[in-house]
Amino acid sequence: xTNTATMAGLDPATLADVLRLxxxxxxxxxxxQIRRTGGCTDPIHLQGSVVVRDRKTQHVLxxxxxxxxxxxxxxxxxxxxxxxxxxxxxxxxxxxxxxxxRAGLVGDPDKDIPETIRDHPRVFATxxxxxxxxxxxxxxxxxxxxxxxxxxxxxxxxxxxxxESYDYAGAVLWNNHASDLWRYFTxxxxxxxxxxxxxxxxxxxxxxxxxxxxxxEYQKRGAVHFHxxxxxxxxxxxxxxxxxxxxxxxxxNAIRAAAARVAVDIPAVGDQPARTLRWGTQLDIRPIRxxxxxxxxxxxxxxxxxxxxxxxxxxxxxTVDRRIGNKEALALLDVPDHTARLIAACLDLHPLYPDRKxxxxxxxxxxxxxxxxxxxxxxxxxxxxxxxxxxxxAAQQRAxxxxxxxxxxxxxxxxxxxxxxxxxxxTPGESxxxxxxxxxxxxxxxxxxEVFVDMHAKGEDW
Length: 462
Hints:
6-stranded mixed beta sheet, alpha+beta, 12 helices
């Protein structure tokens, strides 16, 4: 049903389309499709059909075609991870990331990860960028260098005290090479572990394995930093305990030494000097425990933190979430001055470093890596989580239609499906409807979360 109370502020075109939808014979089905996508902002349109037959008799058990759908299409969720593009799909992505990270911390037998993983040494490490010039900040109880006590939401936080002397070129080049810095860090980490264990690298690999899951986050100054869960395992991964020498202290010391060793050299080109890129000195390493004591952080907090930033990108700095081709296009965008200078630096440096594709990644302030990555044996995969969700929904649909389980040895069904891409997006009225459905879903989730927290505090079962 449409919500007339929220229709008062609609522009005439959107209002007209909402009224058209509400009066159309397929309105209920359109609502149902949008609700099934979770209120996706930019759904994919598919055209096609599905026929389920008895393999032996060729009798048709079920038939579906988008010919019977409103507009002749089936809407499916776009699956975009960015909250700036699609909050609904980003919520799903964040949930998957949460379960992926959490499974690598507490174990999950359903995902073939033993619960004994909680006994393995593991830390939550944050690796940051170096300074490119003094910026406005909140240094504890002291005033900023500018002499002001900035509130938490001050727009000047993270911006340079002197933009003219700030090393914008160095900042975007650092972002651009951040993934290389991380790759070298993982190489040096294994070497430092072997060194501290008094073993060769081959012997250390035969006795232990280092697994990680990480996420990238933008600081307010526009520099990328990485949050990573780093864990010691046995030689076969999470299924085997780490050796006695693989302690928390050894892992912590090896991380510090490896981060200090990393260096990526950039040769001098044009008016740009030669540079050596390194991690910043602000390296934070904290043990992960099931329950924290103020110094140690909990498994729940780590998984929630990583999931939160898995759906964010450079938009948190005020930039846009799409490519910017040139400075003329940049001038038309309403972005903060500091962010605009970083983008302009990418565009200016692109001809000097064409292989780094700085123009293509100017909207990301130079960063061109994946925001969320993990090592092979850390835990499950996002693909496996998506497949499990798809299998669950398919089982629900089969049960509703009275179709046999295809995994049943006695089942003799044959499914023939044909799908083609038929566009994407919403009409103005559908966009309004999707936004309302998404808000309703979010409200229901918040209520459920509050009830769960209250019941948990009282020691009651969900």
